[in-house]
């Protein structure tokens, strides 16, 4: 399709049926057989519309999966036994669990790299088979220097970027030299905490074909309803991302000035903030005292939610008093009122 409209516009127009008399939106097509085609192999019109839209937003060839984590599985499925992968020491807990398991089973060799340690990534680019990047990272919102690392990896290690937090509105990693982008559309693309879905987007068609084959073999196909809901969510991603970014910037600034808050991390755009209180007890009390912001896991929905990740198995490396805060679309002044009353009562 090439460069055409802006990402914000493409989120609205891409993947719609074309031609006189066509519906505005692709229908939900619950089908396993489509004539001689079988949906696990060929997809359904609903998945294909979502894939076309996300492919255009990221500038590559998209494949939809049952979940974000199924995309990690599909990428690992392409690696021969004994391959070496580098993975960020702070990254989505399920991704790290997948790499840890593959290593324990003797399938892969894993190297854990501190997200901001660009030198270590550049060294890994010359030695590893695959670099798995995630930026900003979940849950600590660390940043990885994607262009420096793709430049070092060119013609050597393949580079994958989990773009769940930034979304294509924040960055388009394929244009920065990455080979594959993955998304958990469960989060910001879906945007309403009502579905599980993942997508891979490959820069070249051959790699996209290999990922599609991995889906056919592995069987982690998306549901018809989920694909439709993800496409429906995508239509408002531009305004949701812009509004959540505005609110998050305001809240990050105010959090930084509150005496109970010892540290704030906000990458400058996007819906996610990480902030720390002096210890786990204070952070747990804050969670209990919030009245508007939900004390809940997951992120990227229209409703704000917050969670102390170190309380969860697999995220013990996160500071004990750190909270991952997903900023939704409520009035930001109401969000601040809620945070301020809870912070005042614990601090
Ligand atoms: C949630 C998440 C995933 C996993 O996605 P699921 O849809 O839950 O399987 C992967 N990467 C990141 C950054 C996530 O936040």
Q: Features of this protein?
A:
18% strand; Aspartate Aminotransferase, domain 2; alpha/beta; 347 residues; 7-stranded mixed sheet; 2 domains; globular; binds pyridoxal-5'-phosphate
Folded structure, characterized:
The chain is an alpha/beta fold. The chain folds into two domains: 7-235, Type I PLP-dependent aspartate aminotransferase-like (Major domain) (Aspartate Aminotransferase, domain 2, 3-Layer(aba) Sandwich); 238-346, Aspartate Aminotransferase, domain 1. 40% of the residues lie in helices and 18% in strands. α1 (7-13) runs antiparallel to α3, α3 (45-58) runs parallel beside α10 and α6 runs parallel beside α7 (146-153). The protein is globular. It binds pyridoxal-5'-phosphate (PLP).
**Tally of separate domains:** 2
CATH top level class name of the largest domain = Alpha Beta
Characterize the quaternary organization of these chains.
single chain
State the CATH topology of the largest domain: Aspartate Aminotransferase, domain 2
């Amino acid at each position: 399709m090439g460069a055409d409209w802006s990402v914000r516009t493409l989120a609205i127009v891409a993947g719609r049926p074309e031609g006189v008399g066509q519906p505005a939106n692709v229908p939900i097509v619950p089908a396993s057989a489509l004539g001689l085609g079988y949906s696990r192999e060929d997809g359904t019109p609903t998945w294909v519309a979502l894939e076309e839209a996300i492919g255009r937003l990221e500038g590559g060839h998209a494949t939809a999966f049952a979940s974000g984590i199924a995309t990690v599985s599909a990428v690992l499925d392409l690696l021969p036994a004994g391959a070496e992968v580098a993975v960020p020491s702070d990254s989505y807990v399920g991704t790290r669990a997948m790499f840890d398991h593959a290593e324990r089973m003797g399938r892969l060799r894993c190297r854990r790299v501190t997200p901001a340690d660009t030198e270590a990534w550049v060294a890994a680019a010359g030695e590893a088979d695959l670099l798995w990047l995630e930026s900003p990272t979940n849950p600590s919102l660390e940043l990885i220097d994607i262009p420096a690392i793709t430049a070092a990896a060119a013609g050597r290690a393949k580079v994958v970027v989990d773009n769940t937090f930034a979304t294509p509105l924040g960055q388009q990693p394929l244009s920065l030299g990455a080979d594959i982008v993955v998304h958990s559309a469960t989060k910001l693309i879906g945007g309403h905490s009502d579905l599980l879905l993942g997508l891979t987007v490959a820069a070249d068609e051959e790699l996209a074909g290999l990922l599609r084959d991995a889906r056919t073999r592995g069987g982690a196909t998306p549901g018809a309803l989920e694909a439709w809901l993800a496409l429906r969510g995508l239509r408002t991603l531009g305004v949701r991302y812009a509004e959540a970014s505005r609110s998050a910037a305001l809240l990050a600034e105010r959090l930084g000035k509150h005496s109970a808050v010892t540290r704030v991390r906000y990458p400058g755009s996007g819906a996610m903030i990480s902030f720390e209180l002096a210890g786990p007890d204070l952070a747990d009390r804050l969670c209990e005292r919030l009245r508007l912001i939900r004390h809940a896991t997951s992120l990227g929905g229209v409703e704000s939610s917050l969670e102390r990740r170190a309380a969860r198995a697999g995220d013990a490396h996160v500071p004990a008093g750190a909270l991952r805060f997903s900023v939704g679309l409520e009035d930001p002044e109401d969000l601040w009122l809620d945070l301020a009353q809870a912070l005042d009562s614990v601090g």
